[in-house]
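User: Second chain of the day. Same drill as before.
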Amino acid sequence: MRLLLNWFLSAAALLIVAHVVPGFIISGLVAALVAAVVIGFVNATLGLVLKVITFPLTLITLGLFWFVINALMLLLASAVVPGFQVRGFSAAFIGAIVLAIVNALLRAIALGASRGDSP
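Assistant: Same format as last time:
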């Protein structure tokens, strides 16, 4: 059940980012759901390897280099998923930052709601 919730939250975050970041385009809910799966898979495989390899650079930049890696993962996912486009590295970089913030907010709201806390 938690996996489905995370999947829908990731898709919702992608849809929100598409409305906020110019050059970040999603054609609809189905494309957002597919993109969420592909982004998760790419981050869990290639993204993990890149984060391990570039860890010294990430330490030097105080973690900011991870946004570069996440931007590259978004560009890769947009090349694979029809209906999901990221036009250029700057849109991917800004999208990675906004996506991280929106994901954190949505998960905090969802976890608060599941515990019975008020948002």
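The chain has a mean pLDDT of 90.

User: Great, on to the next one.
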